[in-house]
Specification:
By secondary structure, the protein is an alpha/beta fold. It is built from eight helices and seven strands; from the N terminus they run ααβαβαβαβββααβα.
Length: 230
């Protein structure tokens, strides 16, 4: 898929969301301007109750594994995860693929910042049933899941710019366009624009800066266990 078309489509989706949020803010401001002291107190109480409810939800999500990137060992863990969490991002990796390590770093940062979504990874070589079920033929692959249904499969990374330098912010921006997480940052100007979000370590930043701007050489998936049998 043409990367410019993908970027344009995502941009339209984000602008539409921003327009709706702006309309909501305008409506709220008009209500506050016309409210008396008693009504303002009711609004304050409702806001406090919403904050308490949000805190309870966040606590429940953390108890389910949200807030961190988890590596699954067994296939049945995958089904347990998608039953418990409404939004799930699953990275199918192989240990020998260097680009999977890059994906892991992005997902670790997103998991910490977006409690609304569960982020997990699973070794594709140890999950043959899921690989066949989802039609995975390229590594890295990322399954975007909502309400136990796969709504999008990223086979390889062409839709993320085809470069290993795509930013965590752009990945978050892309996931938000698929309604998998809530992205409140600015629209990335390019695949590599980090928008000043999602902290990286000094080591990661130095490594990222020193790398040449190369195009990904993606890996066609195969089952290493089958190769050993031949």
């Amino acid at each position: 898929m043409n990367t410019e078309i993908v970027a344009a489509a995502i941009g339209e989706k984000v602008l539409e969301t921003l327009e709706k949020e702006e309309q909501h803010i305008d409506t709220t401001l008009r209500q506050l301007e016309n409210a008396d002291d008693e009504e303002l107190e009711r609004i304050r109480e409702k806001r406090l109750e919403r904050m308490k409810e949000q805190a309870r939800k966040m606590q429940a999500l953390r108890a389910q594994g949200h807030g961190e990137y988890t590596t699954l060992v067994e296939t049945n863990e995958f089904f347990d995860v998608i039953k418990k969490s409404e939004y799930v991002v699953t990275h199918f990796f192989t240990p020998a693929n260097a680009f999977c390590v890059t994906i892991n770093g992005h997902l670790q940062r997103l998991a910490a910042a977006h409690l609304e979504t569960r982020f997990v990874g699973i070794n594709a070589e140890k999950a043959q049933f899921l690989v066949e079920k989802l039609g995975i033929w390229m590594i890295p692959s990322i399954a975007l899941i909502k309400d136990q249904k796969v709504v999008k499969m990223l086979q390889g990374l062409d839709e993320l710019g085809g470069t290993e330098k795509f930013s965590t912010a752009f990945l978050a921006y892309f996931l938000s366009s698929q309604n998998i997480l809530k992205y409140n940052g600015s629209v990335p100007e390019s695949f590599t624009d980090d928008c000043g979000l999602y902290r990286t370590t000094l080591v990661e930043s130095a490594k990222h800066k020193d790398q040449p701007n190369t195009t990904l050489r993606q890996t066609v998936f195969y089952d290493s266990d089958l190769e050993d049998e031949n």
